[in-house]
């Protein structure tokens, strides 16, 4: 009896420690958020003070306008990127290739296209993992059209681009990007599935035995482990893309400072019927991550480019990049790659023209 009584205080102390730890981390998180917001909200004032105060440059100077754009956008985009990548890293801890395949295998095509597109938005896969994902999907019973809905949505509807668009342009532009990207992925995958193009997949793909997993269902992760994955995502992704982000901001600064507004409006404005296909043609051979293309998008819009044309350009860079086509050539025959590019490209053209007409 006495030994049982002695154990109770120890058990009580053990229960209180996690609660105290959660309170500590909550306070740290709130302090970090407050500090982040304080710095973020002061960037514009700092950029104006540095360029027009400390450096003494005049407001009408083109070089001053370009420098102010770069000084303002660089910390702004990078700070947004840190938060987005950390949050996405936590979300991605809930998904693995095995879990994604299980969710998509055996689905009817219409439902599968919708589910595949939605999973493509939140799963941690990009063009570099297209080949192993494609093989894993088709060898475990995922229909070809559903597989393409996933492969289209994964790079095109980039969650980093989505949140950056929300932070820079507001929820309407972000919602347009998300909605149109999902529609393109769903319809393109559905069309490819209905065409029954399995014969244009390289024969060795279907001969590959499906990967078997002996690990069973994924183990539950603690929130501390998920936060660690978010931190690792920041180190890995931001550590790799920040030079491209700064390069994109530098290009955007040059456009903002030196490209006349009338010129950009004449090339990419609503009045130029050929601006949308030209934007898609220019965008496909380019290779840029989403974070690097957003500052260019912002500069183009500021200079009078039409929203539909700019969205078409961004989607073609992210969703129809030449490197992804080269990677997919390992598993797809050229007619299927051409069909894929044609269907997705047509969808992007429709989106561009639609928004130029409506907005």
Structure write-up:
Helix content is 78%, strand content 0%. By secondary structure, the protein is mostly helical. It folds into two domains: 21-92 and 222-239, no CATH class; 97-210 and 259-358, no CATH class. Helix 5 runs parallel beside helix 7 and helix 15 runs antiparallel to helix 17.
Record keyword descriptors for this entry.
mainly alpha; globular; 2 domains; 359 residues; 17 helices
Entry summary:
The protein has helices at residues 2-41, 43-54, 62-92, 97-104, 109-122, 130-139, 144-156, 159-169, 171-194, 203-207, 223-258, 261-268, 275-283, 290-302, 307-319, 322-328, 334-358. The chain has 359 residues and is an all-alpha fold.
